[in-house]
Design brief:
By secondary structure, the protein is of the alpha/beta class. It has five helices and five strands, in the order βααβαβαββα. The chain has a five-stranded parallel sheet with strand order 2-1-3-4-5, with helices on both faces. It is globular, with a radius of gyration of 14 Å. The relative contact order is 0.20. It binds ligand CA2.
Amino acid sequence: MSRLVYVLNGPNLNLLGKRQPHIYGHETLADVEANCRRVASELRLEIRCHQSNREYGIIDCIHEAREIAAGIVINPAAFTHTSVAILDALNTFEPPVIEVHISNVHKREEFRHHSYVSLRADGVIAGLGTQGYQLALRRLAHLLDRAAAK
Ligand code: CA2
């Protein structure tokens, strides 16, 4: 059974660690992805990381994942609050999906309180900083281990 997980990041997250550290912390996207790789190898997961500033970039990755992946960790960034297209793409993906937000979106502006992606996600992590990605990977590994034991 595949243990391949896609880690997808949406628009502007390429600027992590370079702007607004009071909201998003000091780690860069490269740091986040390196930490994900470290945790993934501990969990015997294979991961593919991708960031796009374009909606279709995220959708194309979800379509690619449909064929081969056992799970998706996704921080859709601002597309969280706007994109029915990303929700539709995720609805075509059967394995578990975990939605991650670095900040606590519920403590922020009202428009960040609604997530289209949460209508599909099996779990949502918000406000745990960049650690949220690692916790999402741990949850996916747990779900895969549980499914394999059945
Ligand atoms: O808290 C999160 O992870 C968000 O998904 C981040 C999005 C925001 O639109 C969501 O409401 C919550 C914004 C990502 C922008 O990332 C930046 C990183 C560094 C500097 C500037 C923007």
